Amino acid sequence: MLEISGALAQSNPITYPQTRRTDQIDDYHGTKVADPYRWLEDDRSAETEAWVKAQNAVTFGYLEQIPYRKQLENRLEQIINYPRYSAPGRKGEWFYFYKNDGLQNQSVLYRQKGLDGKPDVVIDPNKLAADGTTRLTSFSLSKDGRYAAYALSKAGSDWQEIFVMDMQTLQTLPDKLEWVKFTGAAWQGDGFYYSRYDKPAAGQELSSKNEFMKVYFHRKGTPQTQDQLIYEDKAHPLRYFFPQTTEDERFLILNISEGTDGSEIWYKDAQSGDKEFKRLFEGFKYNYSVIDNVGDALLVYHNNGAPNYKVSKVLPKTGAISDLIPEKPEKLDEAHTAGGKLFVNYLKDVTSRIYVYDLNGRLENEVKLPGLGTVSGFGGERDDKFVFYTFTSFTFPATIYRYDIATQKTTLFRAPEVTFRPDDYETKQVFFNSKDGTRVPMFLTYRKGLKLDGSNPTMLYGYGGFNISLTPGFSALLIPFLEQGGIYASMNLRGGSEYGETWHEQGMKLKKQNVFDDCIAAAEYLIAQKYTSPQKLALRGGSNGGLLVGAVINQRPDLFQVAIPQVGVMDMLRFHKFTVGWGWVSDYGSSDNPEEFKAIYQYSPIHNIRQGINYPATMITTADHDDRVVPAHSFKYAATLQEKYKGPNPVLIRIETNSGHGASNTKKNIETMADIYAFMLWNMGVKSLK
């Protein structure tokens, strides 16, 4: 229980639940490694469930004593309560889009006939579960728009079920496809291709290793038991298979990968009557992605011989390949086709630049954007006359624009009606040097008129992995923190793709320490420039970013007052043994490899917690249905940190129910952020809100 005398104080002792230790020891290439909390990996056992209940009792007991916790939750609820739309997508005469009225737990899918038509509800996920935790994860229309395949996920799990809807009646048909994960529906004729796994053992649905993915074809109106097996690979259990079809449904593309980096492409050409798949690109050294076809040719986005990526035209019959859009100094981040054009998104110092090319690779024009920020959209069908895109930045709420292809003109389509003043805040991009001299960018967002006196509460956020870029984007949930004089600092660490494959490779495998060095340098920069001080600095990250937090506070606990590792990969020796963790070996390496084990073991968060040092106030977050980074990572990390750290700062774990790798609904997202801000500010010495 939590011992409280009067007002909550940081010096109050916390009595943590007792966590049973075992004498489990593993041998890694001659190195003996203790794993005393291995039993917490069984997240469905009665003992683990009792431990979770006891830990949550301590955590929520602590949080409930923070006087402004509810005030923060109310402000978050108030600030996010405005209508939020997605950009529309056209199919025939219908336009489809998502809308959230403000506080709806899930966004609702609508459609309307023409841009001036009356919106009709297609799917409202809020009606599918009493607690609002069933999500609509994908929606794919057949070529003629007559039918749609849509996928639902329950309680935040990566597992999905696919259903089929008749778009004339908006009635869901009897079709139901189970044990589906990490796939869409690639339509061809009267059915679609999808990937699935075999049914896992009872009780192990959220933790067992996912192996032997298979590709099936489902014909509309038939049971799943009749689905046709299209592709399997019995020799390689740890591979992903992603089917896709070109817009004209001529080519069936099979994207194969062994993890999050590197791919291989196979194809079937319906026009040639191919019975078997043929290999287009051998894997897994480079990343390849088919954009679409132009007649006999495929347009391929890839980084073979181009670390910053390029687009090539490939003739599958002959294997002839030619560059359509050559590599540039900037990262080519995305490429889409619509209306007979190629829309290409480049990243220049982590902000979008959009260029339009014809299908022969001739540059036609640049699309003028509202400012420096992030763009999404521009995809569409071949006969589109216009497309939509969304622009956002840290102080620019997501705004939808319409681009006319013939006139090359952009017009505002839909601006958000927010209840606060984004103009009160500003964003500044700064650059700092890492330990090895590498120049690293970071965005700082704060209220205008900020004083550089070292007293500003600052939340340092990073990811640094898996070729993922942290580009500027608006979140209303940041505003309550900024209103308290806070600074939000978003780091663009190595391991991401902000500067192409070279940037990614500098943060992979044996070079992962570069990511942590970048983060440490960012913290040192903020302190040296008097944006903040160690007493006012929090480090936060999720998933691979949770690993970042755990590793960095082991190495430099003196830089931070607060640490928030969320759904983190904390046991680097065993991550590949659960669900799809094996897919991360391409980025992290594996403890099964002697050289990679040595590198991983030096930074693995659980294995480098030391006694006798003062750790920041730490609140770990995870969820019971996280079947991507299983909660055992956070459970074992919390138990180890509580065991070894004897200082005055709290070490808490907040375990959400009916939620997954991300918040499963709006309500849970608000509650989690309120608790993070309350914990953060309270441990920075903030006694009341402004």
From TrEMBL:
Protein keywords: Hydrolase, Protease, Serine protease
| InterPro entries noted in UniProt | AB_hydrolase_fold, Pept_S9_AS, Pept_S9A_N, Peptidase_S9_cat, Peptidase_S9A, Prolyl_oligopep/macrocyclase
The catalytic activity of this protein is classed by the Enzyme Commission as 3.4.21.26
**The protein's enzyme class:** hydrolase
Chain ranges of the Peptidase S9A N-terminal domain: 17-414
Q: Name one GO molecular function term.
A: serine-type endopeptidase activity
Keyword Protease attributed: yes
Task: Tell me the GO BP annotations in alphabetical order.
Answer: proteolysis
Q: Which SUPFAM superfamilies does its entry note?
A: alpha/beta-Hydrolases, Peptidase/esterase 'gauge' domain
Positions of the Peptidase S9 prolyl oligopeptidase catalytic domain: 479-685
Is GTP-binding included in the keywords of this UniProt record?
Answer: no
Q: What are the annotated GO cellular component locations?
A: cytosol
| Catalytic activity as recorded in UniProt | Hydrolysis of Pro-|-Xaa >> Ala-|-Xaa in oligopeptides
Q: Which family does it belong to?
A: Belongs to the peptidase S9A family.
Its function, per the record, reads:
Cleaves peptide bonds on the C-terminal side of prolyl residues within peptides that are up to approximately 30 amino acids long. Has an absolute requirement for an X-Pro bond in the trans configuration immediately preceding the Pro-Y scissible bond.
Spell out the protein name for this chain.
prolyl oligopeptidase
Query: From which organism does this entry originate?
Result: Larkinella arboricola
